[in-house]
């Protein structure tokens, strides 16, 4: 085994080891609105859920080099809501295009040929093409600080208010999600992505 002490590595080296090991990661493709109602669209792979009695998901969004929140995080902090879409393989290219760095008065939607639809509970519009999406409201916000008390990351806990599934994805009676039909895209490391491939089942021991 290769043994490395995290204290002996640079922040970039630690990040590389973590992001290259904790794979695959689902991708949250997030719509938010700025204070000026400009739509921001951006993908994030530090995206997960937690075992709770209420429908919560988490987004961890790193700060900019100047320690200011990224546009998505700032919009969520300001307006307390977002639409989170799951990304199928067929949407890999438009998703990647929205990772571009734009000015605050520009919308990533202008870079891609996708359609919008009005949300049910929140003001932020959703994209039509993704097969699964969640309307969410901010449940909690944790600014994560480094050892010098500088904020590194905004950890956003979002409560799902509305679920949307393509009819081919969800069995309405059993609420079973058809993963093969969803065909989710996963982030690996650097510019690399993957699909799920084959799955298998195992019985849990009693």
**Annotated CATH homologous superfamily:** Electron Transport, Fmn-binding Protein, Chain A
Strands, count: 12
Derived from helix and strand composition plus strand pairing, the structural class reads alpha+beta
The mean pLDDT is: 96
Give a topology summary.
Blueprint: H1 11-21, E1 25-26, E2 28-33, E3 39-44, E4 47-49, E5 56-62, H2 71-79, E6 81-86, H3 92-97, E7 116-117, E8 126-127, E9 132-145, E10 151-165, H4 179-182, E11 186-187, E12 193-194
Antiparallel strand pairs: 1-11, 2-3, 2-6, 4-5, 5-10, 6-9, 7-8, 9-10, 11-12
Tag the structure with descriptive keywords.
Pnp Oxidase, Chain A, about 210 residues, alpha+beta, globular
Account of the protein in words:
By secondary structure, the chain is an alpha+beta fold. It has a single domain (23-192), classed as Pnp Oxidase, Chain A (Roll). The protein is 15% helix and 33% strand. The chain has 4 helices and 12 strands. A 7-stranded antiparallel sheet has the order 3-2-6-9-10-5-4, covered by helices on one side.
Short description:
This protein is of the alpha+beta class.
């Amino acid at each position: 085994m290769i043994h490395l002490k995290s204290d002996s590595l640079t922040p970039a080296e630690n990040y590389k080891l973590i992001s290259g090991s904790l794979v695959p990661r689902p991708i949250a493709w997030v719509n938010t609105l700025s204070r000026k109602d400009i739509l921001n669209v951006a993908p994030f792979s530090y995206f997960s859920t937690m075992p709770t009695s209420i429908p919560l998901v988490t987004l961890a969004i790193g700060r900019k080099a100047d320690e200011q929140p990224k546009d998505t995080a700032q919009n969520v902090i300001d307006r307390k809501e977002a639409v989170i879409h799951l990304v199928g393989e067929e949407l890999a290219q438009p998703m990647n295009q929205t990772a571009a760095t734009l000015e605050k008065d520009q919308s990533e939607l202008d870079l891609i040929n996708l359609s919008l639809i009005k949300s049910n509970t929140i003001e932020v519009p959703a994209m039509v093409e993704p097969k699964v999406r969640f309307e969410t409201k901010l449940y909690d916000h944790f600014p994560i600080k480094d050892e010098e008390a500088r904020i590194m990351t905004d950890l956003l806990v979002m409560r799902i208010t509305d679920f949307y599934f393509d009819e081919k994805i969800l069995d309405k009676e059993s609420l079973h999600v058809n993963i093969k039909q969803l065909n989710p895209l996963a982030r690996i490391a650097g510019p690399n992505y993957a699909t799920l491939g084959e799955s298998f089942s195992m019985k849990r021991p009693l």
